[in-house]
Specification:
Layout (H helix, E strand, L loop, with lengths): L3 E2 L13 E2 L2 H10 L7 E5 L5 H9 L2 E6 L2 H7 L6 E5 L12 E6 L5 H9 L6 E9 H8 L6 H7 L2 E9 L4 E2 L6 E8 L10 H14 L7 H7 L11 H17 L1
Parallel strand pairs: 1-5, 3-4, 3-6, 4-5, 6-7
Antiparallel strand pairs: 2-9, 7-10, 8-10
């Protein structure tokens, strides 16, 4: 497939790149991600192509996005089922069909890339296995203390930390260890996708002004306990608190 440049991509800039050192590790990560022959997979920040090569062996189609023109040029034409996009991964056009993500995310763009993948609950993303800094993996993979983004994403995706990767697994080694963070789409979302906009505002209000600003003291005590703080509720409790609103309105 012919390579292309992501629409609106920023010019390449110098940044630290940490590539997987071995093909063996890349193959393990792809196997752990359960990629199959019918899957479309996106590799954000493809770099030297360690993951891209292993994905190309097993997936139906791979979209490899790389900002650095040197590495993008080296990726082009190596595999018939890989499309290479030169540009900023955070601005990439994601597939409209069901797709997966297996990627070693650029550490300085992790938050932007998670927003790209997870902000739209109507996206056909099925699962994302992404390598991030270990601290980020723990922050996003643990249910407590919660964060505003984590609660919103948690309504539509289950999150877990699959494994820890030492700095020695990369070349050049980063300053910190890394982890594999996995997002799996829930079979049944905690909040209907069509309510996502209202739910985002509800969660933002609760984190900014406190739970009593978006709900009643009775509901908070029943669902989370007396004196609970926004960061102490998990995704299930936040969703229950949100869905409690129409029940309360109907009972008045």
């Amino acid at each position: 497939m012919a390579g292309r440049r992501a629409a609106g991509a920023r010019p390449p800039s110098a940044r630290s790149q940490h590539f997987l050192r071995t093909r063996t590790l890349a193959a393990e990560l792809v196997r752990d991600a359960c990629v199959g022959a019918d899957d479309v997979v996106v590799d954000l920040g493809a770099g030297s192509g360690r993951l891209t090569a292993e994905l190309a062996r097993v997936a139906k189609r791979v979209l490899a996005v790389e900002l650095d023109p040197h590495w993008a040029a080296r990726l082009r034409g190596r595999w018939q089922n890989v499309e290479v996009v030169e540009g900023d991964a955070a601005l990439a056009r994601l597939p409209r069909e069901s797709f997966r993500v297996v990627a070693n995310l650029p550490f300085d763009r992790t938050t932007d890339l998670l927003h790209l993948l997870l902000d739209d609950p109507g996206s056909p993303l099925v699962r994302a296995d992404v390598i991030v800094e270990w601290g980020v993996a723990c922050k996003r993979g643990l249910p407590w203390p919660s964060t505003q983004n984590g609660i919103f994403w948690g309504a539509f995706y289950e999150t877990s930390v699959a494994r820890r990767l030492p700095r020695s697994a990369f070349e050049p080694p980063p300053a910190v260890d890394a982890g594999v963070l996995v997002f799996r789409r829930r079979a049944e979302p905690l909040v209907a996708p069509e309510l996502a906009g209202s739910y985002r505002q509800f969660v933002a209000g609760g984190f900014r002004r406190g739970l009593r600003a978006v709900s009643t003291g009775h509901a908070v005590r029943r669902i989370a306990g007396r004196g609970a703080l926004a960061r102490e509720l998990d995704a299930h409790q936040w969703a229950e608190l949100f869905l409690d609103r129409p029940r309360r309105a109907a009972g008045r």
